Amino acid sequence: MAGTPRADGPTDPDGHTDPTSPTWLPPSLAGAVPASLLRRVGAIAIDWFAAIVIARLIFPGAEYGSAESAFATLAIFAVEVIVFTWLTGSSFGQRIIGIAVVGPGGQRLSLWRCVIRTLLICLVVPALVYDSKRRGLHDLAVGSIVLVRRTIPGMGR
How many separate domains does the chain show? Predict the structure, then answer.
């Protein structure tokens, strides 16, 4: 029946689960808001642009668009995302946009989870396939959740 709440969260008038509803989050993350797709895309764009700039500075002889330049940019992107996410809960771009990556209990991700998640993002396809709760395959694989930073209990800006 349309509009009837289901076990996996409230529904809209058409009976679809509301992906913006945080009711599917664990109790330790009550009040947290999942990051929108727009915020996530903005953050990855900032991270990628930063990686391009750093690659151009470190490898000025590599022609932009060449295999060497592409590999350097991807490697710098991966290292930046892994290190920043592991240490601060957000990549450089995510920090600017105001989102954070946490484990299912709201804790910071372990290094191995950050590595697996980032490697899957680098494959592109897992980041493009996501569920109704805005969790990409890379998030599902490591049990991570991307939330608006200011709404996460116990986490500052």
Answer: 1
User: What tokens does 150 get?
Assistant: 């200011």
- Evaluate whether residue 18 is within a structural domain: no
The span from the CA of 95 to the CA of 106, in Å, is 16
pLDDT tops 80 at residue 63? yes
pLDDT tens-digit readout, 115-145 = 999 999 999 876 778 887 778 888 988 999 9
The answer to whether position 37 is within a domain reads yes
CA dihedral of 149, 151, 155, 156, whole degrees rounded to 10: 70
In a domain, 143, yes or no: yes
Between CA 128 and CA 124 the distance in angstroms is: 7
Beta strands in the chain (DSSP E): 99-102, 145-148
pLDDT at 82: 98
Q: Are 35 and 130 in contact (CB under 8 A)?
A: no
H or E stretch covering 12: none
Environment class of residue 148 by beta-carbon count within 10 Å: exposed (0-12), middle (13-18) or buried (19+)?
middle
Tens digits of residue pLDDT in 6-39: 444 444 444 445 455 556 777 778 888 889 889 9
Q: Are 13 and 24 in contact (CB under 8 A)?
A: no
Q: Which range of residues forms the domain containing residue 116?
A: 30-151
Q: What is the pLDDT of residue 154?
A: 74
